[in-house]
Every structure is written in structure tokens, then in C-alpha cells.
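User: Design a sequence. Structure:
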């Protein structure tokens, strides 16, 4: 297969065309995709038309798909979640819910957060609804030597329902909450495949830095988030129907935007694949 690549911004993100994922990519092409993802952190595969089982199977070439109950699943395939303009906080106040509307990395409230997320644009609005990303390696590398020395070795408590939460998350049954107790992760993590260091932040799930008083912890986390989301570290993906965007949660944060015209639909299918405990 011949892949055509297009760099989407200078410091991250690449798009490829020339693939139909209904047919498994050969080993060389799959290795090329993986390499493109590791180098660019965000990989867009254009022009796909995939039923949920085919989407899951294509993504299983990148890792082991995981089930997550916090989002609805497609009827055909439990590992394919739905993110939709019609999402509601069904067990909570029943109101419209925009999943992922603040800067975050997926699953950080889990002890072993997913490594990659794959989002497939099934129905995209005529304008708006972009997904923004930040390069957390670049954000870490741009810190002053003093700040790097201050934060190296610090650990942070992450929770599904953090008291610092900036975006409402869906209410979950008690039984499910017990399956996601808080997790403690390093503030600076090392990517297990590339060995590069990255800031590991999640504006919506971080509770407090271990061993630091609340005010100092809040101030440091706020400073680091403000630094990481500076425009120089960002890429903004404007969706085309049929895009699959794969991102590495170990080296990026992302954010959804619900700024598309009222009444227009946005429907994404999502797969996440297993990861390890961050170190
Ligand atoms: C997410 O946060 O995983 C969803 C991103 C999006 O809908 O753009």
C-alpha cells in the first residue's frame, strides 16, 4: 500500500490517505502507521467508512481494545463507545453533556490509563466541533531548569470526580465508582516506547499533589496547565467526515469543542487501547 502523508502542524500531527481499514493493513504499513504516531503523537487516517466491528478490529492492530462503561457503546460492538451531540447526563440531571470539553488525557483516574484513543468522525458538523491537542513533550521540554527540578519526582492524585473539575462528567452508579478508585501518577512521565519525558496533567481529574498543601498544589497545577495549553504547543483538528484520529494519551492532552451550529449533529465512535501504569 502507498501511504500519502501530510504534516498538519510543525510540532505534531500528521494525516495519511491511501488506506481502507476494512482490509487489514499489511505488516509494513502497520509499522509505518505506528512510527508516524510515535513521531507525531496525533495520527489522522482520512476517508474511512467502517462499521463498529471493523473499526474495533482495525484499532486492535495498535493495542488491546478496552471496555469503558462511562460512555454508551454501539449495539454491534461493546468496545466501540459513542460520543454524540445527543449525550445526556442520564443518571444525573438529565441535561446535555459535552464529554471532554476541558483539557485532559483519557482515563487518568485509572491506575493503568489507556495508552491510545481512536476517534472516528461518523457524522461531523458543517463547521466547529474541532478537537484541540497539546504536545506534552514540548510543554515539558520548554519548562525552565528550576521548574523541571521542582516537579521531577512529584506524584498527583487523579479522581473520576475531582473537586478541581472544570467540566461536568456523567454521574455513574455506585458499583462503577468502586471500580475506579483514585489513582496516583507522576507529574512527569516517561514514554515507554520513545523514552521522552512529558508533563502528565488532566485539568478535569487531578485532585492534589501528594505531600503538598492544597493551596500550593492548586497554584502549581494551575501554573503548569496554563503553560501546557499555550498556543505554541497546540494543534487544532478540524474534522472531515471519515477521519479516524489516533492520539497518544501518554504525550498529549486534548479537548472537545461544542461550538457547532445548534441543531447540527456530531457523532463520533471511540476505541481506547490498554496502557501501563505511568512511570
Ligand atoms: C474526548 O475527549 O475523548 C472527545 C473529544 C472530542 O469529542 O472531540
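Assistant: Done.
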Amino acid at each position: 500500500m502507498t501511504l500519502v502523508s501530510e504534516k498538519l502542524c510543525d510540532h505534531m500531527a500528521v494525516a495519511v490517505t491511501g488506506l481502507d481499514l476494512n482490509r487489514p493493513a499489511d505488516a509494513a504499513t502497520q509499522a509505518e502507521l505506528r512510527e508516524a504516531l510515535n513521531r507525531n503523537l496525533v495520527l489522522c487516517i482520512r476517508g474511512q467508512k467502517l462499521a463498529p466491528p471493523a473499526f474495533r478490529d482495525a484499532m486492535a492492530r495498535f493495542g488491546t481494545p478496552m471496555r469503558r462503561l462511562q460512555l454508551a457503546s454501539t449495539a454491534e460492538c461493546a468496545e466501540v463507545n459513542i460520543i454524540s451531540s445527543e449525550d445526556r447526563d442520564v443518571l444525573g440531571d438529565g441535561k446535555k453533556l459535552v464529554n471532554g470539553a476541558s483539557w485532559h488525557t483519557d482515563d487518568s483516574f485509572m491506575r493503568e490509563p489507556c495508552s491510545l484513543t481512536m476517534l472516528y468522525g461518523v457524522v461531523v458538523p458543517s463547521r466547529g466541533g474541532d478537537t484541540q491537542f497539546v504536545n506534552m513533550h514540548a510543554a515539558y521540554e520548554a519548562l525552565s531548569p528550576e521548574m523541571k527540578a521542582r516537579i521531577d519526582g512529584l506524584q498527583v492524585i487523579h479522581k473520576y470526580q475531582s473537586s478541581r473539575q472544570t467540566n461536568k462528567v456523567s454521574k455513574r452508579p455506585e458499583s462503577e465508582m468502586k471500580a475506579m478508585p483514585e489513582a496516583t501518577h507522576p507529574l512527569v512521565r516517561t514514554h515507554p516506547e520513545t523514552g521522552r519525558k512529558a508533563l502528565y496533567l488532566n485539568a478535569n481529574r487531578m485532585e492534589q499533589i501528594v505531600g503538598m498543601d492544597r493551596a500550593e498544589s492548586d497554584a502549581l497545577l494551575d501554573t503548569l496547565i496554563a503553560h501546557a495549553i499555550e498556543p505554541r504547543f497546540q494543534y487544532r483538528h478540524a474534522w472531515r467526515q471519515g477521519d479516524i484520529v489516533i492520539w497518544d494519551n501518554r504525550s498529549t492532552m486534548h479537548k472537545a469543542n461544542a461550538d457547532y451550529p445548534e441543531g447540527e449533529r456530531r457523532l463520533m465512535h471511540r476505541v481506547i487501547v490498554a496502557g501501563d501504569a505511568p512511570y
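Residues 4-273 form a domain with the Double-stranded beta-helix fold (CATH 3.60.130.10). Residues 83, 99-100, 106, 117, 119, 131, 254, 256, 268 surround succinic acid (CB under 6 Å).
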